[in-house]
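Record filed below.
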Amino acid sequence: MKSRAAAFACAAGALVFILSLLLGHGAGDDLVDVGRSLIIAILCGTMSWASAQRTIAATASAIDTATERLLAAAHGDLHSHVPAEIGLELPDLSVAMESLFSQVRTNLDHVQTLALFDQVTGLANRTSFCRQVERLLAERCGAGPAALFFIDLDGFKAVNDTLGHAAGDQLLARVAGRLREVVMAQVSAGLGDAVIGRLAGDEFTMFFPVLPSRDAASRIARAIQFALGERFELGSQHVDLGASIGIACYPDHGDSLSALLRSADIAMYHAKHEGRGRAEMFTAELALEAADRAELERDLLLGLERDEFLLEFQPQIEMSHGGVAQAVTAEALVRWVHPERALIMPGAFVPVAEESGMIVALGDWVMSRVCETAARWARSGVHQRIAINISTRELAQADFFLRLRHAMATHQTPPPMLELEITESLAMDMDERVLGQIRALRQEGVRIAIDDFGTGYSNLARLRELPVDRVKIDRSLVRDIATSAEARTICSAVVGLIQGLGMEVVIEGVETQAQMDMLRVIGCTLFQGYHLARPMGEAQYLDRYAAAPTVEPTERRSL
């Protein structure tokens, strides 16, 4: 800028000198004219230089001020105004700086909102909720208990699967609104405000820093259940939800947020296991159950590594009209030979495996052992299929059928020696990819059965289209068949329907001879249950059921 000012002053002086010479030409002595012109030029150049220097100084000062303001902004000062000096000397820069600071402030506010609030519900997210609760716990001075509520929605996954994620997000926003209404009602009742958060998915939390008693916590839980139990309307769709709630009180159930969350989570899972739609207060007994469950989960992983599992087999018996009883299928049932707890039945460890994800590894072990056993039976001339139960978690694995075929190929298992049992609810929800794989296996000779029929919700049109060979009627449909006319009517209708679709019917849970007699009158010929045989080891099974068919005596006794 100084160089430009010097150049400007020199140019101005030269121009004045030339003009002065031209205007004074012929008026006097040439040397005197040149001197006068030179003096005028020097004065003009000096004045131009002084003027330019003053402008440069003002601009430089404005630039220095702008630099200082930008440094202050870099250190976090985005709210102070841009100095007026900058606006006077450099108006475009002043406007640009104001616009920049405004945009940065807006972006930072947006980032803070994203960091602290859930975008779907507008509630505090996990980070914000935990910070607020930890601050409230640190500032507590009241004598009453505090209460943390862990709320898990019942049936939300079905809404996402059937109506889509957009409807699911809308439903979550409605749930958040009702939780706010519950808190407002409690504030009106004098119980104080609360912090509400969405931890993840369909899990919500609510923290009341001061309550008069534990009974107040139970009343709040009932209010939450009532609020979430009312029907939700999503456009033309009506959705019924519920909630499983776990309650933990400070300081009895934990003196820190992490301890309270753990206790409330344990109580919530207990509420779910007890049938959902419940509110449970944390207790020491629940803590022991949770610890035992965690230990069982650790032992389950070690058990898989140490090969502590075995298979037992329960026959499915075919009764012909001539009284000949013959085992046609052996259902493989897994048992756990725990080194400290003796023999553990699947009802005690399969749910743990399902929740922890270890059901996939356990299923692979069962699948490999069944394929090996079936191949060995086929080589020895025992042509009875072995049925294997497939869980929802296993079938959800993209490579399940690849692993099944690998096990069959490894042990050279003939496909007709295998039968896959899939639960009724799983069969109704299978997508086209899974159906295609099952159809391919069925064409190769693997039999497909629907297990526990009568315990879920069946679509009869869907049942007709499924690639299924057999349907196993659940024991709940035949339990009262010998004493209840209504039970006989229902069972007869179900059996007739399935047989009319061209599928075989297997009756599960046969426990008495009277049940068998009535079922045979209805037209059933395939049975499984304790009245016929309990699950047994492979050697005992082969001794009893690998031989020729036997004639059923008139007075049937339990095998």
The mean pLDDT is 82.
